[in-house]
Specification:
Blueprint lengths: L16 E5 H16 L4 E2 L9 H9 L5 E3 L2 H9 L4 E7 L3 H13 L1 E6 L2 H13 L4 E6 L13 H11 L4 E7 L11 H24 L6 E4 L5 H4 L7 E2 L9 H5 L8 E11 L3 E4 L14 E4 L3 E6 L4 E5 L11 E5 L3 H5 L4 E6 L2 E7 L8
Parallel strand pairs: 1-16, 2-9, 3-4, 4-5, 5-6, 6-7, 7-8, 8-9
Antiparallel strand pairs: 1-10, 10-11, 10-15, 11-14, 12-15, 13-14, 16-17
């Protein structure tokens, strides 16, 4: 952990530094908790965004019922940090990983996703051999076109097979409406998300009508939480980015606070229109496009190379000088956070802590 910056002004820290405004983070966590307080759906926030046990614990303290992870390795890190209830919203495939999953299930309450009967049988056999009943939910493709069994009869057939397997405990369904979360037009986003939730909840009802207990119906991302979180029959939300936020979600009108920024230093200038900062794609991801420059105003990121960010001045920008600080809003929080070892945590203009991004790089 890099604790050297603690007590410094944000303007004094070494860069590039991934900064987290702890007050804004806590307000975002409290806002989501307040939104769900009078809804039937509970929150199981996605930790693949922040990858940080310190943040997961804040979410749990605010009422989250557990966390969601994308990878087994992330779940192992979170379990090591004492987190007890973890949904791995993904398919865990292959004997080595299944053995790790079963070992994890002995230590903590873990739920995994399945979409296929042969895969379910493999999980069941490995779990039963260790005397474990592995909690499982069926992943339903509600329109995203990624993983998942189709809704309706195919999901019912799988659930009936799954319920007979001795090593598995069938818990319910998940259906992530990832194709809706970033639809720009709010009415269209709502239409797409509502259609997805209808498929998911109707599938849950079909299973119940055939005597299968469906206790979990899990969905939701930051862009759709207000829609899916109100949809009758959805029991859990998996949103993640709301806690830290990023430029992509801001661009589609999501107004959670911008807790995450990247502070960089100008290392080169040419004339008054061109400046170069000490942060490139090894500090800022570009899968969702260029980061936004928050301060100073009047500059934009023209392009990123490995360790350089090339800034272009716009009409209203003041010329930059070597050594000046530039604060940027990552375009995609999840993939930018994964590039860093720790958050430089600030309150006001001071650094108050360094929080390890312990699950950074846990892609296995
Ligand atoms: C399975 C799953 N659930 C939920 C989310 C929601 O995340 P976010 O709130 O960051 O949109 C994602 C994001 O990719 C996801 O893959």
């Amino acid at each position: 952990m890099n604790t050297q910056s603690i007590g410094l002004l944000k303007s004094e820290i070494e860069t590039p530094a991934l900064c987290l405004d702890a007050d804004a983070l806590e307000r975002n966590i409290a806002r989501m908790a307040a939104f769900l307080a009078d809804k039937p759906a509970r929150l199981r926030p996605h930790a693949k965004t922040h990858k940080c046990p310190a943040i997961a614990w804040k979410q749990l303290e605010a009422g989250a019922i557990g966390i969601t992870c994308a990878k087994l390795g992330e779940a192992e890190v979170m379990a090591q940090a004492g987190i007890k209830d973890i949904l791995i919203a993904n398919q865990i495939v292959g004997p080595t990983k299944i053995a790790r999953l079963v070992a994890l299930a002995r230590e903590t309450r873990v739920i995994t996703a399945v979409e296929d009967a042969a895969h379910a049988a493999e999980l069941s056999e490995a779990a039963a051999a260790q005397g474990v009943r592995l909690r499982t939910i069926i992943e339903v493709d509600v329109g995203m076109g990624r993983c998942g069994v189709l809704p309706g009869e195919p999901a019912l057939a799988l659930a009936q097979q799954l319920a007979r397997l001795p090593g598995l405990q069938f818990e319910g369904l998940m259906g992530y409406e990832g194709h809706a979360v970033m639809v720009v037009d709010p009415a269209e986003r709502r239409r797409v998300a509502m259609a997805s939730m209808a498929l998911l909840v109707e599938t849950a009802e079909l299973l119940r009508a055939h005597g299968l207990p469906v206790s979990i119906v899990s969905a939701g991302g930051t862009g759709t939480c207000e829609i899916s979180g109100r949809y009758p029959g959805v029991t859990e939300l998996q949103c993640g980015s709301y806690a830290t936020m990023d430029a992509k979600y801001r661009s589609v009108g999501i107004d959670y606070e911008l807790a995450l920024t990247l502070v960089a230093t100008v290392i080169s200038v040419r004339g008054s229109d061109h400046a170069v900062i000490d942060a490139g794609v090894k500090a800022l991801s570009s899968d969702f496009g260029m980061p936004d420059v928050i301060s100073p105003g009047g500059w934009r990121v023209a392009r990123l190379s490995e360790e350089h960010g090339i800034l272009a001045r716009q009409a209203d920008g003041e010329p930059l000088r070597r050594g000046d600080r530039v604060e940027l809003l990552p375009s995609h929080g999840c993939t930018t956070i994964n590039l860093h070892d720790a958050y430089t945590v600030t309150r006001g203009d001071r650094v108050t802590a360094s929080w390890p991004i312990a699950a950074r790089g846990a892609t296995r």
